[in-house]
User: Fold these one by one.
Assistant:
Number 1:
Amino acid sequence: MAAVGPSGAAALTLAFVMPSFVLLLLLGFDYDALHKHLLHVYPLPAYGVAALWAGLGFHWLGERFAWGRWSRAAAAAALLAAIAGVGSLWNLRAGYDWTARYVGAVLRSLPPDARLVLVGDTELGPVAYYHLIENWRPDVTLYQSQGLLLGNRLVHPMRIADDQAARDELRGLVERESAPVAFVQSTPEGYAQRHRGLYVLADKSVTDRDAVSVELPDEVRRFLDESLLARDERDPWSRLAQASLRERLGGVSRSGSTPRAAPIRRRRGRCRVSLRTTPARLASPRPARQPARLCRARRSPATWRKHAT
């Protein structure tokens, strides 16, 4: 830091601390995966200062050990290779298919001609892409609960007085549709609920409007066992989606009994992971570490496309 002087060193330190540590102290929340990606632009000045420090440190090493031109070039190439290698672990995702498996489990398990009401971008973006672009389950109709996206708005977000109008319109959707209506989140009150793990069917045919039942279709159960409870994805978005789904399943398990999955079955050198899905396990924030975790029966996006259409 002698190259910039004491005042320059103090300024760089302040520029690093303010948009990082001080920002977290002022906002007062845990810097988890959700908040990290919501506020990832604010620590950018700190990253810039860290990069400047790395350059100054590299220059100091070259002067301290009297590196020649080729030595400095080799050290710089090694540093760039290390940065590229670490970055590739998170950004090279040619084999990533968790989103396709999640959307496939949702769409394939829906009843024919169902209406699916989505809320957040965690499920809206992936489901809408595979439904509208890849043409998975063309008999299904998608809605966004607040009318923010998709052309078939139930309500216009700029023309309603409050959230109650949107809730009333969702109830109207259930009442006027003869086809099943499924909700990923925020199921309207006043209807019996059939929890299917990844979504809830509002059942207006049941007399007891407070009735809650849990039924896991085979496709949903397979997804829960192989892709949600038995493994953690590496990227922050998938981990966030997994945490949200586990939280919802934990709430379902507290409301009633949950069907058990079949035991682990192995065939032809591969295994089909099938964990004992108990209420306590569903409520756990992280999956248990079991040997079955090493068995990853995965399908390619092409296979999911074949079965979802």
Number 2:
Amino acid sequence: MADFSSGGQNLRSESTYLQRWARDVDTTLEENDKVLNLLAHRTNVTNEAVNTISSAVGVPPDPGSCSASCTGYIRDGILYQRVTINYSAPATLGSFAGIFVVVGGYNGASASTLVKVGEDTFHGAAGAAVSFSNLVLQKTGETITIYFVAKSSGEVARPDWQNAPNVSLALTAGVGVINSTLQTKANAPTNIGATVVGANPLSNDGVLTAINVASFSVQYGFGTLSYNSGSVDPGSFGKWGVYFDDALYSGGAVVFHADASASVLTASDNRIVAGYITTTAGTPRAGTGGGNGGGGNNKLNLT
């Protein structure tokens, strides 16, 4: 009979060796997975740290001396608000490269709804003053908040716009500049509708020839303006048209005039008739009509 004892021992030895080798391979693979996971974790942590540092460095310092104002101007018969933005560059520029102009509470939106409406790119020295007036908004009568959000040359800005320097601005300005370049004659002030709101402001006591003018408002196509009270003395009793000129459509204090000639009432652009009145000695009188100087159903025939 053949002796296989030594061969059996050899097979057992090889089997044991293969088992140990397999365990070693499993262990090695397991360790490799741990190393790879550790490296991946470290890479993520490193990237996260770099991104955080990069963001912190990229956000520029805030501007200083922030303010805003507005004037009205008419274009195509509509009253707009030309907003002037003022600020100064930070004392230490860092990555500062200008501002985003962000508004809250504009055109019916809530105060917390912030919208970027403009921007300025800064090219100057630290602390330099900046002023620009290329921002145009509608005259909504609202008081809005304007935020001065600093930006970098890479357009990086703080994420919390609501914490940026800010000011309040009322969008209620009358006309400060009439842009004749943008207006055609059809849209010029002569053709802007105007009507005195409410009771006519003119009165006369029948004793003196002076005509008193109470404070009043005029409804234009672009909105309503209020005017101060005053008086004018034509020097005699009779039929008079009382008018004033408001070249900038700014309302407030104006100089009143009285004339009996209808042609005088239309002799100037921006001329508005406060009303008409027939004064009589011994009888108090009130005025009627008012609006544009040239014609209309609410005008008296003065000729």
Number 3:
Amino acid sequence: MAEKTFSEFYQSILDLVKSFEKKNIMLKIEKNLESNIIQIFGENTDSLSRAKNGIEDVSELSYTTAEHHPYWALLYHCTNQ
């Protein structure tokens, strides 16, 4: 049942994006419905800002991974300056 609800949410997002396209505001959507993830990028989003966002996601993973996990230090030190 949760998958259907998320799919309905995704469809609502698509409808919203289409309404903005009619106003000449371009948005890009990337989805991973199996993981319940939807990303929306504005028309001025470039590759660098998308990469920075991805690094922030990896950084968040390093914060939530237990310190005794073998990959914790690798994630933490690769994403923090």
Number 4:
Amino acid sequence: MRTVARCAMVAICLAQPVAAQTRAVTGQFGVLGEWDLTGALTRQTGEHWAGPVRLKHVGYCTVDGLEEKSGELQLRLAELRGRIAGTMMIDGVACTFSGRLKDGFDGTLRCPDRRDVPITLTLD
């Protein structure tokens, strides 16, 4: 019995923490795809992923030059079922999207008090 307990203790002590799984995310959103999105998501639990994203306005209609923002992206990826649902926090506003996931995601980003805009995401 002591041998089993010692073996278990050694196994626990030698076990290394599981490395966090990360995935790169890129995409565009806006009426004309005028915002580029890049980020790195870390698996939180099961199908849930989250991480910071950088948003860069790449459209021609800028007033004061290049505009950049940062935000937070939370995803629920049900890859076996081909579904994705997400929330992106931008300037304190929660925007949401959901739909089919197949070679990336093409859908609609919905933000309160704003019109819906197209969004495209690719996960590596």
